[in-house]
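Support request, please re-run this one:
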Amino acid sequence: MSSRKAARSVASFGSWASPIKPDILLHGTVHMRNQMARWDGADLYWSELRPYEGGRIVVCRRASDGTLSDVTPQGFNARSRVHEYGGGHFAVKDGIVFFTNFNDQRLYRQEGAGTPRAITPADDIRHADMVVDAARRRLIAVREDHTTGAHEPVNMIVAVDADGRREPITIASGNDFYSSPKLSPDGERVTWQTWNHPHMPWDASEIWVGELDRDGNLTSSRKIAGGGNESVLQPEWSPSGELYFVSDRSDWWNLYRARGEGDEPVCRRAAEFGAPQWVFGQRFYDFNGPDEITCLFSDAGASKLGRLDLNTGKLQHIELLYTSLANLQVHDHSAVMFASSATLAERVLVIDLNTLAQEVVKVANPAHIESGFFSVPRPIEYPTENGNTAHAFYYPPRNHDHEPPEGEKPPLVVHCHGGPTGSAGPTYPFEFQYWTSRGLALVDVNYGGSSGYGRAYRQRLNGNWGVVDVDDCINAARYLVDQGLADPERVSITGGSAGGFTALLSLTKRDFYNAGASHYGIGDLKLFIDETHKFEAHYCDTLVGPYPERADVYQDRSAINFADRLSCPVILFQGLEDKIVPPSQAETFVAACKEKNLPYAYVAFEAEQHGFRQDKNIRRAMEGELYFLSQIFGFETADKIEPVEIENFTKGPGVGERI
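Re-run finished. Output below.
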């Protein structure tokens, strides 16, 4: 320990040499966030996004004998565009894989190593959340039809012939959105989730059950749970045919089961057994036999694995090294999930629920990095506006090869997540370690509105998007500055999508930050509601207010209208094929900066959508933001980075000076 300390070289924060480079992140690395893992008997299937293949999503298989293989052949990309965010992009039964192909959005059937065969027409009709109805040789799926000529695409639940021969049968229709169809064990009932504008599924949704005849036609249906002030999700049938679901009626997403004409809680706990449904196919619990549920739950900002006795309601926590768990499924007393921690890359993890033996099937990032370069986050609670408390995770600078000059404080990067109902957590954020191993501090903020802290915390943002989030991010930075953990003259804010909205508004409406970055962020709320897709078309009704009745609020919460108040340089990164936050958002902000001679940088990526998936663009965004901060904050990077041109900016004698 002492020899390592003695060998450290002194270098300014931001200038530390680090082995954590974009190439380590990108070479052979896959992304598992928002992907799926499913059992088919003893065979295990999962999907992974591969930046080194242009962001292609591939379905993979581990056979019962341990053999690993790709299922999705070259030329196919298993990615759905339902709700634009997708998810729920494949299903498997008896070795036959059904998947939605990104380029044409057709459903394909693939048997073994054979060539995939389309089973839906070559029209803009999209599918997700498929479940196989083997007895009737069909798939039950969410359909989003863009061919009707209506103002919005039409969503429904349909039954699609597994061979593509028969016409589809409509199971449920008439509402704006559908999700999570599940077939009962005897095949006689089907359940689903549904909701309508202006709600999002985490605000108000319902669970329904329908009766099916022998041919699979719906004969009747009734609502089981949910309503105007309740979010319900993931309906599941128990092995005996009882219906279970998750509801936040108690302020927390807890487990319930339908009994008779009503329902009852299975486990009351101040913890979240669910999360916002931005993508299809998420699973938070599954049955391990008739008397036990294996489940994921989160409290104190970390995910945990539990086993729930259905007879006693007792929840047992299974201790793991991982702090982030997602997408659980159980088969024959084996649970599969995606797992990660602050120092362990995401992986496909299988746990034997009898012996608790663990097996790592696939690691997202195979690179080995010494622990001395990893910053382990710690949760912080801090005071914010109106006497409230907010939450965040603080990542201190860490690099066992370097130490700062005496008395120097590190620059601070304030990260605001997207959603805005997303959540920060002690996961494996490689990008954060890229910053901290070079000597920057980072705080990942769970501002009011974030998930993981109950419905009331989530609803703090209602009507206050662009206020609560902005305040909570600034107060996180102030808290760390007051603790002596950050340089008050070198504070930057960064975020993507909704996080970019918060970043842009913070830079224009408040005089606090010294730099900022927006990754495909919303700069004009009016443009956003005019141009965005159906899923989020009325999201702002809750977050901001009804439009056009509250047009004044939309004006006040749009950074584009206050670009002339920009108090420091900003860099914008944007995908040119983004349908959720179109490039016009960034380009309008850039035009305002040009007109008013304000400092900015703009980096646009061709063939990128919402969130960057290609390795070259991920690298450019990471390095470009670091270079940008080095210029603003006055440090030399240890890496050679392609410069980013910052328009209307001249380096002054000091660092972090506001304009």
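The chain has two domains: 22-363, 378-633. Confidence is low (pLDDT under 50) at residues 655-659.
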